[in-house]
Amino acid sequence: PLANWNGDEMPLDQVRVSVLDRAFLFGDAVYEAIRVYSGRAWLLGEHLQRLRHSLKEVQIVADVDRLHERLARTLANSDVQEGVIYIQVTRGEAPRRHAFPKEPVTPNELIYIKEVEPSPTAAGEPRPGMRVVTFPDWRWKRCDIKSTNLLANCIAAEHAEVNGCDEAILVHHDGSVSEGSRSSLFAVRAGALLTAPADESILPGITRQLVFRLADRIGLRVIEEAVRHETLTQLDELFLTGTTTEVAGIIDVDGRPIGDGTTGPVTAALQDAHHRAVQ
Ligand code: PDD
């Protein structure tokens, strides 16, 4: 993959960074992942806005407009048509102490573009339904910040993988199901969409927000109310959304089928609307 490291273009495997970078020592960094369709960065403005929010909340000062220019240049030079752009901004390198460095530090800014297989919906095929497991939401209380501190997400994703599943959905101690380890969660109940409110306990997904607009277009009501763990398998449909997940039906939770065990009609309609939107 082609990278842009602090403004210089180079192959990703040639980027070198100090072990004193605070991202390495503390997970002190924020990031974004952006899908590229037909050579264009999809919903780029929304992603850069969320990056600004993450940077502000963790008090890292970086020039997002400059990152935008670098991204556009590197994307064009990469020639990638179907891909994912990864952007990460770290607080920078400094001797290890918890409080922020008092000497001025320069954030380390990484962008790289990875090629991906075109999504199955682009070939006119349905996306395969996903099997998921539930796992406790061990994350901190500011999940609205897209931080690289992802250990709780990684442990949940690993739990899914070793159980032969595609994703883990995270259960809060109050019994609400917040989102996936790397995706947003929706349910269909009595013809309306249900999804957790975008407070500080979830990442405000860009695809989640797009699904709100798509739902509006096809006349579906969206209720911002978290799905409850105990009623999960009684819902008509469940699906996940995300930059790389797109819109994916959930067919099974913890070994129990959802609906008739295939992607439901409302999910399929939204998948179709999503596919048309990204054209
Ligand atoms: N993950 N929730 C979490 C915890 C996520 O990490 C993500 C994205 C989402 C979906 O957000 P969006 O629609 O903006 O991609 C929800 C990215 C893809 C990642 O970590 O690579």
From TrEMBL:
GO molecular function list: D-alanine-2-oxoglutarate aminotransferase activity
Cofactor(s) this protein cannot do without: pyridoxal 5'-phosphate
Keywords from the UniProt entry: Aminotransferase, Pyridoxal phosphate, Transferase
Gene3D superfamilies reported in the protein's UniProt record: 3.30.470.10, D-amino Acid Aminotransferase, subunit A, domain 2
Keyword Transmembrane: no
One of the record's GO cellular component terms: cytosol
One protein family per Pfam: Aminotran_4
Enzyme Commission code(s) on record: 2.6.1.21
Enzyme kind, highest EC tier: transferase
GO biological process, any: amino acid biosynthetic process
Family (UniProt): Belongs to the class-IV pyridoxal-phosphate-dependent aminotransferase family.
PANTHER family: AMINO-ACID AMINOTRANSFERASE (PTHR42743), D-ALANINE AMINOTRANSFERASE (PTHR42743:SF10)
Name used for this protein in its record: D-alanine aminotransferase
Species of origin: Kolteria novifilia
Gene: dat
